[in-house]
Design a protein that fits this description.
This protein has 20 helices and 22 strands. By secondary structure, the protein is an alpha/beta fold. The protein has a nine-stranded mixed sheet, sandwiched between helices.
Amino acid sequence: MRGMSGESQKKRGRIRIGKWKWLAVLLAAYDIAAICAAYYLALWLRFEGTIPGPHLWAWKGFHYYYALGCVPVFALFKMYRGMWRYSSYGELFRILLASTLTAALHAVLITLIKHTRMPLSYYFLGFVFQTGFLLLPRFAFRMIRFVNSSVLQRNDETAARVMIYGAGEAGQQILRDLKNAREINDRAVCFIDDDGNKWGRLLMGVPVVGGRETVFENVKKYHVDKIFIAIPSAAASEKKEIVNICNETGCEVKILPGMYQLMLGQLTVSAMRDVSVEDLLGREPIRADMSSVYRFINGKVVLVTGGGGSIGSELCRQVAAHNPKKLIIFEIYENNAFEIRMELKQKFPDLDLEVLIGSVRDSRRVFEVFSKYRPDIVYHAAAHKHVPLMEDSPCEAIKNNALGTYKTAYAAMVHGCERFVLISTDKAVNPTNIMGASKRLCEMIIQSFDAKIKAGKAGEIPQLFTHFGIENADKDGSGSVFRNIRTEFVAVRFGNVLGSNGSVIPIFKKQIAEGGPVTVTHPDIIRYFMTIPEAVSLVMLAGTYARGGEIFVLDMGSPVKIDTLARNLIRLCGYKPDVDIKIVYSGLRPGEKLYEEKLMAEEGLKKTDNNLIHIGCPIPFDTDRFLAQLRDLMNSAYSNKPDIRDRVKEMVSTYHPEDAPTG
C-alpha cells in the first residue's frame, strides 16, 4: 500500500510539473504572436493603414526572428515561472525591464540588419503595445479577481460592515486582506484616522471619514458591525482611550497585536485579536532585561514552594527557561502540581524536574526536602491569599503564611541555601485584614533572619516545632550548623495580578457568562494590576539585586478603578453595562480596603538599577522580642485561640483590624 501511495504521489507530482511547463510553452507562444502584432500595429498606426513597401519588408524580414529572440530573454527574467494569480509589483518590474531591454535591442538590430531607418513613433508605439500585450495575460487573472471581489463586496448584503481605525500602513494591509481573502465575509466601509490631512480622501476606494470624535456618528451613518483597530505603533494609553471609545459603540472590536507583525509583513485579518483586559490598563507592558536572571539561575538548584499556583507556576516556567541545574516544585494541591509537571515536561524535555507534594507547615517534610536536594535558590510563593476566607479562618492564615514561611526559611538557612525570596503583597502595608497582617509577619520574619545572620547570631533564631523529630537542626548541640551561614533573605511586594486564582477578572467573566449581575464591592474601590508574567519577571530580577533584608517594591503603574474595569469587561463581551448586564454594589467585605498601598508611611524608597523596582527602607522593630513572640503566636494558632488577631496586633504595629469596613 505504501508503494502504491508513493507511486500515485509521484504521478501527481509529474502531472503538476507537466501542466506548469505546458502553460509556460503556451505563454511563450502567445508572447511571440503578441510581439509580432505589437510592432505591426505600431507601423500600421504610424502610416494610417498604408505602410510603405520598404518599411513593411523590413518588418517582415525581422519581426519573427526578433520575437523568437525575446523568449530566452524573458526566460532569464523568470517571466515563465510566476504564479500569476498572485502577481505583484515584483513581476511588473521584471516585465517592464525585459520589455525595455528587448525594445532597445529591436531599435538597434533592425537598423543594422535591414539597413532601414524606421520612424521614431514606430519604436515608441511598438514598445508600448509590446509591454501592454505582455502584461495582459499575466495580470488578467488578478484583475478579474479584483473586479469580482469588488462587485461581490458591493452586492453582498450579508457581509459584515467594518470600520478600520488607522489609515496608515497597517490599515492598508488589513484593507487589502479584506478585499483579497474570499473566506472572510467582511467589507470595509470607512476609515477613521486622527491625522486631519487624510480626512475626505479615499484609500483603495474606501473613504477616510474623520477622527476619533466622529466614531459614533460614522458607526451609525455607515451601519458598522465591526471595528478593527490598526494602530500597532500607538502608545498603550492612547490605545486604551481608543478602545474605550470603540467599546461604547456596541460593535465587535478587534485590535492588532503590535509592531512585530507589521515589521514582518504578517498583518492579516486573521492576525487580529479580541480586545483584552490588558489593553484597558493603559500602560506599556513591562519588559525586563532578564540577562542577569539567566546568569543567576544558570546551573543552580531552584525550589519553588506553592509551585502549582498562579504565581508559583509562572515562576516555574520562567525558571525552567533559564537553564537551572534542577527545578523542584513543592505543592500541597496535587492537581495543580500534576498540571504544571505535564506542561514543563512537554515544553522542556531536558529539564531535571522534581515535583513533590507537601505542606510548608510540615517542618519534617520541609527539612527532608532541603536535606535531600540542597536548593541554592528558594522562591517562596506558598500562601493563603483570599482575604474573606482568611477573615473567617484567621488561625489558618497564621499557620500557613507566617509559620510556613518561618519553617521554610529556617530549613533554607541551615541547609546552605544561597538566596530566599519571599513573595509578598501590597496588602501587607497597613493591613486591615488578617491575610495582609500574616504577610507582614512573613516580611518581618525574613528581616529578623537577615539581622541575626549579619550579626553572626544565627544560632539565636529559635527553631519552631509543632512536633520534635528528625528536623532538629542542632542535633549534637554544638551549634556548628550555624557557622558560616550565607543565606540572603529578601521579600518582593506587589499588587494584584490579572488572571491569578481568585482575582476579579475570572470572577467577572463567569458572572457575565451567566447573564449577570456583576458584583463590585464598592464604586470607588481601586487596585494596582500587573500581568502574571510581568510580576514574575520582576520578582526574579529583584531577587538578583538582593543583599539581604530588603523589601523590594514593584512599580505597578497607575491604579485601576474596579467599577470601570467591570464595565469595560462587559462591553468587551458585547453587552451594555446596566442594560444587558446589571452591576450590583455588594459593599466592602470584612478586612477589605478601598485602596491598597505599596509602602507604609514610615517607609521610604531607594532606587535600584531598574526603575521598575524599588527598595523600601524597613521599619525598625525589636527582633529578639518578635522572635520570642512567634512561639506564643504558633501555640495560639495551633490551639485555634479566638484572640489570634489581638496577638498579631501586638506584633504588627501597623495592623488595624478595627479600621476594616463592615458590610
